[in-house]
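Lecture notes, part 5. Sequence design as translation. It can be helpful to think of inverse folding as translation between two languages: the language of shapes and the language of residues. The source text, in structure tokens, appears below.
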């Protein structure tokens, strides 16, 4: 009969060992999740509230207190914006390289060269054939606009100078 007691005792001992392992495993699982033990997030006080760093993902958030409680908002990652811009520029460079390799695409090209002329070159006065008079070309609209602009600026400066002199003489400086 004795063997029956030892098998029951060993059965109870095995059950106790399984129960201890199950509860110990639960404690180990609780220790491996540091979210509640303040291990995942690092908090730093700032004037607006708290700056929170997620040590697993590296994301940062600002947490502020509002009427309904605390709210955390992710801080924009400048590095991600820079990486996106670098990627866009690299794609644009590749596109331009492909266009360069494909060759020039000039539209409206003609075979004959255009005559060389200088639009600012002054024409020589012409002599009338029968009377031997010199003909002087009239100024263009562009020349007249330039002269009028110059005269307007000079007139304004003259009036401003006269006003300053009048104020100086009257002592109203």
């Amino acid at each position: 009969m004795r063997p029956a007691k030892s098998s029951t005792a060993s059965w109870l001992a095995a059950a106790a060992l399984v129960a201890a392992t199950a509860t110990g495993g639960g404690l180990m699982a609780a220790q491996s999740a540091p979210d509640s033990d303040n291990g995942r997030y690092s908090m730093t006080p700032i004037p607006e509230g708290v700056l929170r760093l997620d040590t697993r993902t590296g994301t940062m958030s600002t947490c502020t207190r509002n009427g309904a409680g605390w709210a955390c908002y992710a801080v924009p990652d400048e590095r991600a914006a820079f990486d996106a811009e670098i990627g866009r520029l690299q794609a644009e460079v590749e596109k331009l390289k492909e266009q360069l390799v494909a060759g020039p695409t000039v539209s409206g090209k003609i075979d004959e060269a255009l005559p060389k002329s200088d639009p600012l070159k002054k024409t020589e006065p012409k002599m009338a054939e029968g009377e031997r008079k010199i003909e002087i070309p009239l100024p263009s609209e562009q020349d007249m606009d330039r002269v009028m602009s110059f005269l307007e600026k000079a007139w304004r400066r003259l009036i401003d100078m006269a006003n300053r002199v009048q104020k100086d003489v009257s002592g109203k400086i």
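The translated text above is only one of many valid answers, since several sequences can fold into similar shapes. The beta strands are 41-46, 49-54, 60-66, 69-74, 126-127, 134-135.
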